[in-house]
Amino acid sequence: MSPLGRPPVLLDIVEEHFEELDFLWELREGVLFAPDWNLEELAELEERAEAHLDGLRLAEAHAVDIARPALTGEEIFAATAATFVFMETGVPELAAEVIEAFEAAADGARDGIRIGFRHSRIDAIAERLAALARQGEPPVAAAAADVLAFHRNAVPEIRRLLEGEDLGSQVLAYGTLGRLGLLREPDLAAALESESEELRRAALEAAARSGLPGLGTACRRAASRRTTPDAQALAFLGVLGDPADASVLQAALAQPGLADAALRGLGALGRVEAIPSLIALMENPDLALAAGAAFQRITGAEDIEAEKPAPPPADEGTEEEEFADDTPPPDPARAQAYWSEHQAAFDPSGRWQAGQEVSADPLGAAFNALTLEARRDSYLGARARSSSTVPDLELELRALLQLGESGKVST
User: Fold this and answer.
1) End position of a domain, from candidates 349, 373, 397
2) Which pLDDT score, from 0 to 100, does residue 1 have?
3) Could you tell me which of 335, 332, 355 has the C-alpha nearest to residue 345?
4) Per-residue pLDDT tens for 169-207?
5) Helix boundaries (H) for 136-166
6) 2-30: buried (b, 16+ CB within 10 Å) or exposed (e) per residue?
7) Structural domain contains residue 178
8) Residue at 205 is within a domain
9) What dihedral do alpha carbons 395, 398, 403, 406 form, nearest 10°?
């Protein structure tokens, strides 16, 4: 093994760098597509994480010693931090040690290593990842294929993983096929019958990335099932961005169990014709927060919240009150005042996200200024409509790389 040095360090400080790197990557993965974060804010978070990784790079062998137990532990993001430490050394033997841990680790650590591999150079382990994707047990094969697809490397045939009983493997396999543009209509149809919301969402995103014909029809069919209407498919109609679906989403507002999804869909659709309904629903205590979020997603309005949180229902006990959501609901009067002042600036024929018109050029000047959630959905809608002309972007790539030196998205 190429020797790493043992420079004089304070081990407590090195351990603190590792713990902070672990914490910041957990935070980073949790806000990747948040409705209240943008790309620049994510980049600032990554810069903080990178500063701690710099400290670990300088600690050399000391950092490796501290990181090693996390590769086979139970904490996801400790394993991510450990993967960065090992892969950043550039030592082939240490990269080999991580790939061995990746194959043998429990699911939590493996998932953390997978995230670390996504954001590391994988030249030294690409062949081994391909072998694992081809021959490994489903959880290992799916994780290996995910890393290869994330880097846009060749991926062995993995369609077998869609049919297994391991949900995590299925979700990753759908994501892989989406990145490769290989999802098929039967694959989507099978996923939309699943009880798992996570799987259905993964399949919808993969279908959008693949530009799958008939995706909108499949969503409408799943959302209108008589006995088990699919809320995920309903909300995804907003992502697809067909103005004709505004009436579908508006009609679903009156259906029990679908109103929240319909509001998410209306926010993603971005049509200002929905604004009066959104303001009216801010009076409904069960739907106020979702209606306010949709209003803000379309308009970019700020400071529409009420002065105080909504009081808990009268029939709630002390324990329920203690854990009640203390987020102030939107104030419909403030929302109406904002809309009365700014309505003239919103072309009713356009599609609006955070006050930006995005229908003409979804990946244009406003793209990086959108919230991470709106940015993702604008991109997926564009891919669904025209995958052959919309570039392949990796939205989970580090924000620092996506912004690039010019501030434009890296492809």
Assistant:
1) 349
2) 45
3) 355
4) 999 999 999 999 999 999 999 999 999 999 999 999 999
5) 138-150
6) eebeeeebeeeebbebbebbbbbbbebee
7) no
8) no
9) -130
Task: Copy the structure tokens of residue 243.
Answer: 């103005």
How far CA 309 is from CA of 18, 216, 327, 336, in Å, comes to: 38, 38, 6, 19
Report the number of distinct structural domains present in the chain: 2
Domain residue limits at 99: 1-121
**What one-character DSSP code corresponds to residue 30?**
H
Residue at token pair 């093994």: 1
For residue range 209-241, list pLDDT tens digits in order: 999 999 999 999 999 998 899 999 999 999 999
Which stretches within 210-313 are classed as H helix? 215-223, 231-240, 245-252, 259-269, 275-281, 288-299
Q: Say how many CA atoms lie within 13 Å of 383 toward its Cβ.
A: 25
Q: Which of 121, 136, 164 is the last residue of a domain?
A: 121
Given this model, what pLDDT does residue 324 score? 52
Are the CB atoms for 285 and 310 separated by under 8 Å? yes
pTM: 0.91
CB of 270 within 8 A of CB of 263? no
